[in-house]
């Protein structure tokens, strides 16, 4: 998407706002002057095939509006939007329906399961509206019920399931459409923390197995950091930073982001790439070898066990070494000493 806007308010005023002098005003002032709310302001990003793209921000920052614009459940006010090169804003009603059914399925916080149908029939429902024959859809639904870990529960009704199990049914139903992209709107925020963790692991596992593209909305930083390949952090309708968890925690774009990530356990997010320094003579072939994606927390264990620096090795090449001073600097949030982070 490119330069996307969604402005709520009186039609004429809303249409005029993108690009106007008022467009940058803080939310309250904007509302006072124009009667409009700019829920999404000039947002540009690409979701890459196969990645988990997280949209994160506090309540009211514009996450849901942004993700609903992706399939035009909400009509954007301005900007452009494409999926696989096809212009979404030019799609007619038929193409749009196909987009929402087959290409970008949405998983909501409240799944809206059909209470009188069994688990299997709820999952098969998505296939039913696609016109799949009964025998085929039941076989496919049974496969998906097993995939999301609900084996043996297929004849229950939603009321006989726990919250987490209901979410799995919703997930299986979304997967039944075999969409290119799964859009998750805060799907787990109503769950208690243990079940929530379990569902996050489930999503991570499914992603790992299938490599399906996922767009995931959350206001929970820990969830964003654990699931996201990249995170777009929103504030007041804008993206304030877009980057990997390591970039957001390690190099916050401004004071707002810095404050946001202040309490994150840095050693669990940052990797040895941030902590390493060039190897000196003789170090390149000594000590334990760590992959570049190794977290600082894991590297601390390796260095503590071996009593000396560890090497960061990628495809047989030594990129640098990490020692206790470098690892401690990361944990303490200190700037890397000169020479660190530079490949040898
Ligand atoms: N239909 C609407 N009419 C007017 N304003 C709206 C409408 N929908 C959303 N807004 C406003 O747009 C802004 C962004 O809302 P949005 O729901 O996208 O935020 P969010 O980040 O998803 O919040 P939450 O985490 O609470 O769901 C808010 O200021 C909200 O009040």
UniProtKB/TrEMBL annotation:
Lineage top rank: taxon: Bacteria
Is NAD one of the keywords UniProt gives this record? no
Gene3D superfamilies assigned to the protein according to its UniProt record, in alphabetical order: P-loop containing nucleotide triphosphate hydrolases
**Which Pfam families did the record assign?**
ABC_tran (PF00005)
Establish whether keyword Nucleotide-binding is in the entry. Answer: yes
Q: Which residues form the ABC transporter domain?
A: 25-261
Record GO terms (molecular function): ATP binding
Q: What are the entry keywords?
A: ATP-binding, Nucleotide-binding, Transport
Report the sequence similarity comment from the record.
Belongs to the ABC transporter superfamily.
Provide the protein name: Glycine/betaine ABC transporter ATP-binding protein
């Amino acid at each position: 998407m490119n330069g996307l806007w969604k402005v709520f308010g009186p039609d004429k005023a809303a249409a005029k706002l993108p690009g106007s002098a008022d467009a940058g005003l803080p939310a309250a002032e904007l509302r006072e002057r124009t009667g409009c709310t700019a829920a999404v302001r000039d947002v540009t990003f690409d979701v890459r095939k196969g990645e988990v793209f997280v949209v994160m921000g506090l309540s009211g920052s514009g996450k849901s509006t942004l993700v609903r614009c992706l399939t035009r459940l909400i009509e954007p006010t301005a900007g452009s939007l494409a999926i696989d090169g096809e212009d979404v804003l030019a799609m007619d009603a038929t193409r749009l329906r196909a987009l929402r059914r087959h290409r970008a399925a949405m998983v909501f916080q409240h799944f809206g399961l059909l209470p009188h149908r069994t688990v299997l029939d709820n999952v098969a429902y998505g296939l039913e509206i696609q016109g799949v024959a009964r025998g085929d859809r039941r076989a496919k639904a049974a496969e998906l019920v097993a995939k999301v870990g609900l084996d043996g529960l297929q004849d229950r009704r939603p009321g006989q399931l726990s919250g987490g199990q209901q979410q799995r049914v919703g997930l299986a139903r979304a997967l039944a459409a075999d969409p290119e992209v799964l859009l998750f709107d805060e799907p787990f925020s109503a769950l208690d923390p243990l079940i929530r963790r379990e569902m996050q692991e489930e999503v991570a596992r499914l992603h790992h197995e299938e490599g399906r593209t996922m767009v995931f909305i959350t206001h929970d930083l820990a969830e964003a950091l654990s699931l996201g390949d990249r995170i777009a952090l929103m504030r007041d309708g804008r993206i304030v930073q877009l980057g990997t968890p390591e970039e957001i925690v390690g190099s916050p774009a401004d004071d707002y982001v810095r404050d946001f990530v202040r309490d994150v356990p840095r050693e669990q997010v940052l990797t040895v790439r941030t902590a390493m320094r060039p190897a000196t003579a003789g170090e390149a072939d000594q000590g334990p070898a760590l992959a570049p994606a190794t977290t600082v927390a894991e590297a601390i264990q390796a260095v503590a066990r071996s009593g000396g620096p560890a090497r960061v090795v990628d495809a047989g090449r030594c990129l640098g070494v990490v020692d206790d001073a470098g690892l401690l600097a990361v944990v303490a949030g200190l700037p890397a000493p000169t020479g660190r982070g530079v490949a040898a």
